[in-house]
Design a protein that fits this description.
mainly alpha, globular, 9 helices, 229 residues, Lysozyme
Protein backbone atom coordinates (compact mmCIF):
# COMPACT_ATOMS: atom_id res chain seq x y z
CA UNK A 1 0.00 0.00 0.00
CA UNK A 2 1.42 3.40 -0.97
CA UNK A 3 1.97 6.12 1.63
CA UNK A 4 -0.81 8.20 0.07
CA UNK A 5 -3.24 5.28 0.12
CA UNK A 6 -2.26 4.41 3.70
CA UNK A 7 -2.72 8.03 4.77
CA UNK A 8 -6.17 8.15 3.23
CA UNK A 9 -7.13 4.83 4.84
CA UNK A 10 -5.91 5.96 8.25
CA UNK A 11 -7.84 9.20 7.98
CA UNK A 12 -10.94 7.30 6.96
CA UNK A 13 -10.40 4.92 9.88
CA UNK A 14 -10.28 7.83 12.29
CA UNK A 15 -13.03 9.98 10.83
CA UNK A 16 -15.65 7.34 10.09
CA UNK A 17 -18.46 7.35 12.67
CA UNK A 18 -18.64 4.36 15.00
CA UNK A 19 -21.97 3.25 13.54
CA UNK A 20 -20.28 2.68 10.19
CA UNK A 21 -17.34 0.61 11.44
CA UNK A 22 -17.44 -2.12 14.07
CA UNK A 23 -14.17 -1.08 15.71
CA UNK A 24 -14.80 2.64 15.51
CA UNK A 25 -16.23 3.08 19.00
CA UNK A 26 -12.81 3.19 20.71
CA UNK A 27 -11.48 5.94 18.48
CA UNK A 28 -14.81 7.73 18.52
CA UNK A 29 -14.76 7.77 22.33
CA UNK A 30 -11.18 9.07 22.39
CA UNK A 31 -12.01 11.86 19.94
CA UNK A 32 -15.09 12.81 21.94
CA UNK A 33 -13.07 12.87 25.15
CA UNK A 34 -10.41 15.07 23.53
CA UNK A 35 -13.04 17.40 22.11
CA UNK A 36 -14.72 17.61 25.51
CA UNK A 37 -11.42 18.56 27.14
CA UNK A 38 -10.95 21.41 24.68
CA UNK A 39 -14.59 22.39 25.12
CA UNK A 40 -14.16 22.61 28.89
CA UNK A 41 -10.88 24.49 28.50
CA UNK A 42 -12.47 27.05 26.20
CA UNK A 43 -15.76 27.31 28.10
CA UNK A 44 -17.86 25.47 25.52
CA UNK A 45 -20.53 22.83 25.86
CA UNK A 46 -19.26 19.28 25.27
CA UNK A 47 -19.22 18.69 21.49
CA UNK A 48 -19.75 15.89 19.03
CA UNK A 49 -23.13 14.61 20.17
CA UNK A 50 -24.27 11.24 18.80
CA UNK A 51 -26.03 11.27 15.44
CA UNK A 52 -29.63 12.42 15.70
CA UNK A 53 -29.12 14.39 18.93
CA UNK A 54 -29.44 18.12 18.51
CA UNK A 55 -26.47 20.13 19.71
CA UNK A 56 -27.36 23.60 21.02
CA UNK A 57 -25.41 26.56 19.66
CA UNK A 58 -22.49 27.52 21.89
CA UNK A 59 -20.32 30.63 21.99
CA UNK A 60 -16.89 30.15 20.51
CA UNK A 61 -13.61 31.84 21.26
CA UNK A 62 -13.31 35.54 20.33
CA UNK A 63 -10.88 36.27 17.54
CA UNK A 64 -9.56 39.28 15.66
CA UNK A 65 -11.27 40.22 12.43
CA UNK A 66 -9.70 38.61 9.39
CA UNK A 67 -7.27 40.86 7.55
CA UNK A 68 -8.42 41.49 3.98
CA UNK A 69 -6.17 39.89 1.46
CA UNK A 70 -5.95 38.96 -2.19
CA UNK A 71 -8.27 36.29 -3.59
CA UNK A 72 -7.04 32.72 -3.20
CA UNK A 73 -4.81 31.35 -5.95
CA UNK A 74 -6.20 28.70 -8.22
CA UNK A 75 -5.56 25.18 -6.99
CA UNK A 76 -5.67 22.21 -9.33
CA UNK A 77 -9.10 20.56 -9.37
CA UNK A 78 -10.49 23.18 -6.97
CA UNK A 79 -14.07 24.38 -7.37
CA UNK A 80 -14.56 28.05 -8.29
CA UNK A 81 -14.50 30.32 -5.20
CA UNK A 82 -18.19 31.14 -5.50
CA UNK A 83 -21.37 29.61 -4.17
CA UNK A 84 -20.10 26.31 -2.79
CA UNK A 85 -22.77 23.65 -3.11
CA UNK A 86 -24.90 23.05 -0.04
CA UNK A 87 -26.07 19.61 1.06
CA UNK A 88 -27.04 18.09 4.40
CA UNK A 89 -24.03 16.85 6.34
CA UNK A 90 -24.49 14.58 9.32
CA UNK A 91 -21.76 12.75 11.21
CA UNK A 92 -20.88 10.67 8.14
CA UNK A 93 -21.30 13.64 5.80
CA UNK A 94 -18.90 15.82 7.81
CA UNK A 95 -16.25 13.11 7.73
CA UNK A 96 -16.68 12.77 3.98
CA UNK A 97 -16.35 16.53 3.47
CA UNK A 98 -13.16 16.62 5.56
CA UNK A 99 -11.60 13.82 3.54
CA UNK A 100 -12.72 15.22 0.18
CA UNK A 101 -11.61 18.78 0.93
CA UNK A 102 -8.30 17.66 2.42
CA UNK A 103 -7.45 15.55 -0.63
CA UNK A 104 -8.56 18.29 -3.01
CA UNK A 105 -6.33 20.87 -1.36
CA UNK A 106 -3.43 18.54 -0.52
CA UNK A 107 -3.87 18.73 3.25
CA UNK A 108 -3.58 16.19 6.05
CA UNK A 109 -7.23 15.48 6.97
CA UNK A 110 -6.16 15.01 10.58
CA UNK A 111 -4.84 18.58 10.59
CA UNK A 112 -8.21 19.78 9.30
CA UNK A 113 -9.91 17.80 12.05
CA UNK A 114 -7.55 19.28 14.66
CA UNK A 115 -8.33 22.83 13.49
CA UNK A 116 -12.04 22.06 13.61
CA UNK A 117 -11.90 20.65 17.15
CA UNK A 118 -9.90 23.63 18.39
CA UNK A 119 -12.07 26.17 16.60
CA UNK A 120 -15.56 24.93 17.38
CA UNK A 121 -15.26 21.66 19.33
CA UNK A 122 -17.17 20.11 16.42
CA UNK A 123 -20.31 22.24 16.75
CA UNK A 124 -21.68 23.24 13.32
CA UNK A 125 -23.55 26.29 14.64
CA UNK A 126 -20.86 27.64 16.96
CA UNK A 127 -20.52 31.41 16.84
CA UNK A 128 -18.11 33.87 18.40
CA UNK A 129 -18.77 37.40 19.71
CA UNK A 130 -16.62 38.67 16.83
CA UNK A 131 -18.83 36.99 14.22
CA UNK A 132 -16.86 33.82 13.39
CA UNK A 133 -19.26 31.01 12.51
CA UNK A 134 -19.45 27.29 11.98
CA UNK A 135 -17.18 24.30 12.34
CA UNK A 136 -14.09 26.11 11.05
CA UNK A 137 -15.11 29.46 12.64
CA UNK A 138 -14.98 31.57 9.49
CA UNK A 139 -15.19 35.33 9.80
CA UNK A 140 -17.61 36.94 7.31
CA UNK A 141 -14.81 38.48 5.23
CA UNK A 142 -12.94 35.17 5.09
CA UNK A 143 -16.09 33.26 4.17
CA UNK A 144 -16.74 35.68 1.31
CA UNK A 145 -13.14 35.40 0.05
CA UNK A 146 -13.36 31.65 -0.15
CA UNK A 147 -16.79 31.26 -1.66
CA UNK A 148 -18.85 30.39 1.41
CA UNK A 149 -22.42 31.62 1.03
CA UNK A 150 -23.84 29.92 4.12
CA UNK A 151 -21.22 29.47 6.88
CA UNK A 152 -23.73 27.52 8.97
CA UNK A 153 -23.73 24.76 6.37
CA UNK A 154 -21.05 22.23 7.42
CA UNK A 155 -20.19 21.33 3.83
CA UNK A 156 -19.53 24.93 2.80
CA UNK A 157 -17.83 25.81 6.08
CA UNK A 158 -15.35 22.93 5.93
CA UNK A 159 -14.66 23.54 2.25
CA UNK A 160 -14.03 27.24 2.82
CA UNK A 161 -11.90 26.67 5.92
CA UNK A 162 -9.83 24.03 4.18
CA UNK A 163 -9.31 26.28 1.17
CA UNK A 164 -8.16 29.08 3.49
CA UNK A 165 -5.77 26.79 5.34
CA UNK A 166 -4.24 25.66 2.04
CA UNK A 167 -3.90 29.30 0.96
CA UNK A 168 -2.08 30.13 4.20
CA UNK A 169 0.26 27.16 3.83
CA UNK A 170 1.10 28.30 0.31
CA UNK A 171 1.69 31.84 1.57
CA UNK A 172 4.08 30.69 4.30
CA UNK A 173 5.96 28.05 2.34
CA UNK A 174 4.32 25.09 4.04
CA UNK A 175 5.10 26.30 7.59
CA UNK A 176 2.21 24.83 9.57
CA UNK A 177 2.75 26.96 12.68
CA UNK A 178 2.66 30.19 10.68
CA UNK A 179 -0.40 29.01 8.75
CA UNK A 180 -2.20 28.25 12.02
CA UNK A 181 -1.22 31.63 13.44
CA UNK A 182 -2.61 33.25 10.31
CA UNK A 183 -5.82 31.27 10.61
CA UNK A 184 -6.27 32.55 14.16
CA UNK A 185 -4.97 36.12 14.04
CA UNK A 186 -5.07 36.88 10.32
CA UNK A 187 -2.22 36.80 7.85
CA UNK A 188 -1.74 40.54 8.29
CA UNK A 189 -0.71 40.04 11.92
CA UNK A 190 1.74 37.28 10.97
CA UNK A 191 3.25 39.48 8.27
CA UNK A 192 3.58 42.50 10.57
CA UNK A 193 5.38 40.52 13.26
CA UNK A 194 7.45 38.42 10.89
CA UNK A 195 6.22 35.21 12.54
CA UNK A 196 3.71 34.03 15.12
CA UNK A 197 2.29 37.22 16.69
CA UNK A 198 3.11 37.74 20.38
CA UNK A 199 -0.54 37.29 21.34
CA UNK A 200 -1.11 34.87 24.19
CA UNK A 201 -4.34 33.61 22.64
CA UNK A 202 -2.71 32.99 19.25
CA UNK A 203 0.30 31.21 20.70
CA UNK A 204 -1.98 29.02 22.80
CA UNK A 205 -4.13 28.33 19.73
CA UNK A 206 -1.13 27.14 17.68
CA UNK A 207 0.00 24.86 20.51
CA UNK A 208 -3.51 23.46 20.95
CA UNK A 209 -3.97 22.62 17.27
CA UNK A 210 -0.53 21.04 17.02
CA UNK A 211 -1.13 18.99 20.18
CA UNK A 212 -4.52 17.81 18.92
CA UNK A 213 -3.04 16.96 15.53
CA UNK A 214 -0.31 14.85 17.11
CA UNK A 215 -2.84 13.15 19.37
CA UNK A 216 -5.03 12.19 16.42
CA UNK A 217 -2.01 10.85 14.57
CA UNK A 218 -1.01 8.76 17.58
CA UNK A 219 -4.54 7.39 17.89
CA UNK A 220 -4.51 6.33 14.25
CA UNK A 221 -1.04 4.78 14.57
CA UNK A 222 -2.14 2.86 17.68
CA UNK A 223 -5.27 1.59 15.95
CA UNK A 224 -3.26 0.51 12.91
CA UNK A 225 -0.82 -1.35 15.17
CA UNK A 226 -3.74 -3.14 16.85
CA UNK A 227 -5.12 -4.17 13.47
CA UNK A 228 -1.77 -5.43 12.17
CA UNK A 229 -1.44 -9.25 11.94
Amino acid sequence: MSQAAKGYWLALLLLAPASGWAEGSWLDAEIRAQAARWAAHQGRTAPLQPAGVATPPAPARPRPAATPGPPPPAVANSPPPLALASRPAGNRGISHVILTSARQHRLDPLLVRAVMLTESAGQPRATSPQGARGLMQLMPATAARFGVVNPDDPDQNISGGTRYLRWLLNRYGGNVALALAGYNAGEGAVDRHGGIPPYRETRRYVRNVQFTHQLLRRLVAAKLAQAAP
